Amino acid sequence: MTRSCGCLVREPRVDLSGQRFGRLLVLSRLIDVADGSLNARFECLCDCGTMAVVRSYDLVSHAARSCGCLRKETTRDRASTHGLSHLPEYHIWMDMRARCGRQTNKAYANYGGRGIRVSPEWNESFECFLRDVGRRPGPEYSLDRIDVNGNYSPGNVRWATKQTQANNTRANRRLTAFGRTKTLSEWARQYSIPVAALGYRINRRGMSLEAALVLLSSECDTAR
Ligand SMILES: [Zn+2]
């Protein structure tokens, strides 16, 4: 297999992959061919499920400790009055409303942009949402829509593990690379890449599956 046209830069500097900085888990180093290695950036997965590209300096200096959700939460907590904003479900509720309702949200295209809505009473009231959905059984669970084209509304939402959710949703679409066809989840498992990261590279960064799997393309380091 030819791995690159010759542009593949072997990275001599410190690799932070696998390290954790606050909520950020560093997945891989992005190689910027044009810029050499002076401006190292890393692809990170935040605990809230959002992908972020962070400069190494910001990681090492602890300036960046989340995708930005931590600051938002802190600000919101101060303003919040119902006293439940410390619950993890509150963060999940905020994220759900943001990806369906806020066009600037990174995931909007796959939710609000596809017509996925939050039921009005859930949208207005966290207490209502919590009453209907219940507490999350554990940190490995996330919010899952039973009908993936349906809304976030009573009866269509459950807590599911990432594996269940991955199998249930668009991760089930079949993709071809290196002459083989598998689901996104299967590709992610085989290459030990979080399925969220793989989906992000393909859907948000516009990488080919093959490039996303081996993360060699110089296009992977487009500016943010
Ligand atoms: Zn986050």
Brief description of this entry?
With 224 residues, the chain is an alpha+beta fold. It is built from nine helices and eight strands. The radius of gyration is 19 Å and the shape is globular.
- Rg result: 19 Å
Q: Termini distance? A: 31 Å
Residues in helix, % = 25-40%
Structural class determined from secondary elements: alpha+beta
Low-confidence runs? 1-12, 217-224
| Percent of sequence in beta strands | 15-25%
Bound molecules: zinc ion
Oligomerization: single chain
| Secondary structure tally, helices | 9
* Overall morphology: globular
Number of domains: 2
Please summarize the sheet with the most strands: 4 strands, antiparallel
Question: In words, what does this structure look like?
Answer:
This protein has helices spanning 56-60, 69-79, 88-101, 120-124, 126-133, 162-168, 184-190, 195-203, 209-214, and strands spanning 20-21, 24-30, 41-46, 51-55, 141-145, 157-161, 174-177, 180-183. It is α+β, with helices and mostly antiparallel strands. It folds into 2 domains: 20-67 and 170-221, no CATH class; 89-164, no CATH class. Strand 7 (174-177) and strand 8 (180-183) form a beta hairpin. The longest helix has 14 residues, at 88-101. It is globular. The model is unreliable at 1-12 and 217-224 (pLDDT under 50). Bound molecules: zinc ion (ZN). Zinc ion binds at residues 23, 46, 48, 50, 66-67, 69.
Q: How would you summarize the topology of this molecule?
A:
Elements: E1 20-21, E2 24-30, E3 41-46, E4 51-55, H1 56-60, H2 69-79, H3 88-101, H4 120-124, H5 126-133, E5 141-145, E6 157-161, H6 162-168, E7 174-177, E8 180-183, H7 184-190, H8 195-203, H9 209-214
Antiparallel strand pairs: 1-2, 2-3, 3-4, 5-6, 7-8
This protein binds zinc ion.
